[in-house]
Amino acid sequence: MLSSFEELLQKIGDTENRLSISSLYGLSGMDRAETRLFQQAWPSMAIERRRQIINFLVEIAEASFEVNFGPVFRFCLGDEDESVRAAAIEGLWEDDDTALIDTLTSLLRDDPVASVRAGAATSLGRYVLLGELDKIKAQYLALVREALLETIHSPAEHLEVRRRAVEAIAYSSEDDVQVIIETAYYDENEKKRASAVFAMGRSADHSWSDLVIGELQSSRPEMRYEAAMACGELELVAATPLLANLVNDPDREVQGAAIWALGQIGGDEARRILYDCYEQSDQFLHEAVEEALEQLEFMRGVLDISLDDLPDLY
Questions:
Q1: pLDDT digits over 117-163, tens only?
Q2: CATH number where 298 lies
Q3: Confidence tier at 309 by pLDDT (50, 70, 90)
Q4: If both were cysteines, with which of 103, 236, 241, 255 could 231 make a disulfide (CB 3.0 to 4.6 Å apart)?
Q5: Residue 296 domain-assigned?
Q6: Which CA distances in Å does 40 have to 6, 9, 146?
Q7: Residue 25 lies in a domain
């Protein structure tokens, strides 16, 4: 007689029936016995079904802090399908267990698919940050830095992987990182330059301020977006007037980045701009403005801001 968990595995793996999203919550918090059953059943499921399941699990994990699909994601790092491996890496975005470092560095160095290697590079960035905050041992940080530096300096590596490695190592305060970011910024490839601006924001190094503010006026939406985000990360008050212009940018993502940045920077001028934006914007941007104002007020020490004070536009 099948256990209820075995029945669950049969149900979610049955391609003859529509996948029930609610049933996937049954994969949260698996014990050891359930994990073994899952590992036995997973490889026999159709590839498309596995892709569908893990993508939904990632979405659920991002929306809820109450679920734990860690054992699923960890096992799927070794899946034969590259889409499943990439999704598994994404699903582990909050897992700071140093036991993952060996697996992620191996994927970065050896996975045959560039998108998986790029995902591994991005994922390793959190360990660089943890190392900078002295929350992991120096030996683990050294392993991560070594793998990222190998990738950055490998001319044979795919551009997407190298740029993600630049972004990941940007948390490091080592002197060589500034050279890496500067080299990427002056590269001929626009995507690599955009990654450099992203890295400038992540670096917490205000020596990049003038370059970042200058890119707010770039002709390329991707660069304006990254520059706005970097201004927010660096909390550049001097960027406020240009960010005010970008809240009306023709590109929606740039608008959102500018609004987020103003919330991070704070101050009376940013607050006024955000209120004006709320009054003049459509429903698409209202939520972004509300979140930015919450952050701004939090920074001022007002933890119980009431959004009822916002203009009633409905």
A1: 999 999 999 999 999 999 999 999 999 999 999 999 999 999 999 99
A2: 1.25.10.10
A3: low
A4: 236
A5: yes
A6: 10, 10, 35
A7: no
Domain count, the chain: 1
Domain span including residue 267: 205-314
How big is the chain by its Cα radius of gyration, in Å?
22
Question: Which residue's structure tokens are 């050294």?
Answer: 142
Torsion sign across C-alpha atoms 185, 189, 194, 196: negative
Q: Which one-letter amino acid corresponds to residue 53?
A: I
Which pLDDT tens digit goes with each residue over 195-246? 999 999 999 999 999 999 999 999 999 999 999 999 999 999 999 999 999 9
